[in-house]
Amino acid sequence: MGTVKTAGELAAKAASDSSVYDALEVGHALTADVFSNLVECANTHNQIFQEDEYCIGMILAKDPLLPNLMRRKFFAFLYLPKPRPSQSIFLYRKKSDSFKRLWTLPDGITMPILSEMGYVARKYRDMYRWTQYFYHGWQRDPISGDFINTTPTHFFEQIRKEHGISMLSESEYLNANREKLIKAGCKESDSLFSESFDFSKIAPKQVADSLIS
User: Fold this and answer.
1) What distance in Å separates the CA atoms of residue 205 and residue 15, rounded to the nearest whole number?
2) In whole angstroms, what is the distance from residue 57 CA to residue 200 CA?
3) What is the pLDDT of residue 207?
4) Run of H or E residues at 89
5) Kind and range of the H or E element at 7?
6) Out of 59-73, 124-138, 170-184, which region has the weakest mean confidence (pLDDT)?
7) Which residues of 134-150 are buried (b: 16+ CB within 10 A; e: fewer)?
8) Distance between CA atoms of residues 29 and 25, nearest Å
């Protein structure tokens, strides 16, 4: 019976692999068992949330110690979470026990490249459209030089219109339920949740295309 290799040993072996893999095949492999994880997340949060509908999300993230290892993290919110790179969001309905994908965004390098493409293959058109929602309204501040989003609600407005839903965004949900949350013991502050993703980090034209020399 052979010895079981550690994650570090497997990562080192993967790093030394010089084989060329098709990116689409890798993507399918990563999402092959996503549904079972969505079901597990829903079963857990059905015991927590009383609402009939809520969002279940998945983030693809690299391991801080093993850079060539990709991890999937699942979470659930009662509102539309802020869009960010490498993220997929699904609407879950308890009564029908069903999932509807609301959006999927690629990684931070691909997003600005995809947003500026004049033509994309049919299989990428949904992701292209959601990326366009994300970047709508970005302008460079004439004083600081930073990119700012002049229409931050555009993304959620388009998502709601596209899917025929009325679910609130995070800020809208917190404002609508502020008194209830305070009575429940939540401290009122600028943000009741972890620090949001800084969109300026992946603003258009700020990320170089590593695939083009």
Assistant:
1) 30
2) 22
3) 34
4) strand 87-93
5) helix 7-15
6) 59-73
7) bbbebeeeeeeeebebe
8) 6
Determine what percent of the chain falls in helix, strand and coil, rounding each to the nearest 5.
35, 20, 45
Q: What torsion, rounded to 10 degrees, do the Cα atoms 61, 66, 68, 72 define?
A: -30
Q: Identify the three-state secondary structure at position 152.
A: coil
Q: CA 14, 15, 18 angle in degrees (round to 5)?
A: 85
Q: Which helix (H) or strand (E) holds 75?
A: strand 70-77
The pair phi, psi for residue 156, each rounded to 5°, is -70, -35
User: Cβ-count burial of 159 within 10 angstroms (0-12 exposed, 13-18 middle, 19+ buried)?
Assistant: buried
| pLDDT tens digits, one per residue of 157-197 | 999 999 999 999 999 999 888 877 676 666 554 433 334 44
Residue 31's identity, in one-letter code, is T
Is the confidence at residue 24, as pLDDT, over 80? no
Distance of alpha carbon 97 from alpha carbon 95, whole angstroms:
6
Q: What is the pTM of this model?
A: 0.72
Average pLDDT of the residues in 108-134: 90
Length reported for the chain = 213
